[in-house]
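User: I'm putting together a small comparison set for a docking exercise, and I want a reference complex before I start. The sequence is below, and the ligand is EPU. Could you produce the 3D structure with the ligand included, as structure tokens?
Assistant: Of course. I'll restate your input first, then give the structure tokens for the complex.
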Amino acid sequence: MTIIPDYCLQHLNTLAIAAKAKFFVEVRDNDELSAALKFAREGQLPLLVLGGGSNIVLADDFPGLAIMVKHAGIELVDEDENFVYLQVGAGENWHNLVRYCLGFHYWGLENLSLIPGNVGAAPIQNIGAYGVELKDVFSELRAMEIQSRVVVNFEKDACEFAYRDSIFKNRFRDRYIITHVTLKLHKSPHNMIEYPALKQALATIPEADLTPQNISDAVCEIRSAKLPKPEDIPNAGSFFKNPIVSNEDFENLRQRYPTVVAYAAGAGHTKLAAAWLIEHAGLKGEQRGGASVHKQQALVLTNTQQGSGLDLLALAKYVQERVFEQYAVNLEMEPRVYP
Ligand code: FAD
Ligand code: EPU
């Protein structure tokens, strides 16, 4: 394990922001993680836990230790008639895991194909796409408590998963580092294809012919048509969550904007498509410094011109203000801002 001072993180965040960490280290197991945490504590350094860097905004240089969690391995730890339980190291790439599961015809991860980043970050915001969230396939996780360096287990209910949310973004924010995640996957057909765009893409395939692979292929195709690849156009996916409002507020909004896109979101609530709100506030293509609102997907802010984290935050603030002015709806940022 090597602790490197003054380390540029540009290639380790998908917005390609050229911020530096005061110290950087990669850890491959719990002994290395523990040693890194000890180093940080002795130097009174703040921590930046890094996976694939696809959901962070580096607003400035980070004045502490950036720890990249590289725990590897995919292990079948249990199996019964209906399910397999896979324990996966936090440092495994998410989409490689999806591909691994497709190879074994396990059902469960196909809708979550092509989400950037690593397995250890997936529980943080309960990643979701095309009608499935991590919580639907989650069994438990292991994490090291930063203060005590003791490893503990979290079962599903303890994680308090919700839309783009978990206990690790709230009460236990910055308290644990996830080292392993155990997923519970179906061994026999179990498709989840109600999401309209996915259903439409698969309409010509008879239900009996659906496989995790052909569902994954359809998801990849839809995603590739909509979302810019970070390698080509640096971005962090959706920059804002889709806001959840009361049905009453939604009805008022729909009176004024009959074409507003929205989805039912449980008892008395409606989830609005933030992309629609942003596009119809005339903000596509809006720029601040090197940052712009993507022209194909208004929920994505891009860093096309080697902008800084501050350019992105200035643009985000402007979008939030304009959306609030026009619709009286608050947009909450999805990526986490550091330092
Ligand atoms: P990072 O960006 O490295 O970290 C994100 C947060 O998690 C940070 O606060 C970090 O400290 C914390 N963290 C990371 N690893 C650990 C760990 N081991 N222990 C504790 N904390 C940790 N998200 C979706 O939900 N659905 C999508 O469809 C989706 N599409 C995307 C498309 C694009 C093009 C991009 C760029 C992003 C997209 N995202 C999507 C967002 C992103 O991919 C997810 O949030 C992903 O889980 C982030 O993983 P990461 O490893 O890159 O995390
Ligand atoms: N739309 C517009 N203008 C646009 C783009 C979209 O009006 O520029 C409208 C369209 O009518 C579309 C609706 O908005 O029907 C929703 O768009 P889309 O299906 O692209 O999904 P999204 O709500 O923008 C969410 C997630 C994505 C996830 C997709 C698929 C959030 C914040 N975002 O995006 O997750 O991949 O659904 O499930 O929930 C991410 O979190 O980073 C992310 C990319």
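Residues 74-225 form a domain with the Uridine Diphospho-n-acetylenolpyruvylglucosamine Reductase; domain 3 fold (CATH 3.30.465.10). The radius of gyration is 20 Å.
User: Thanks, that's exactly what I needed.
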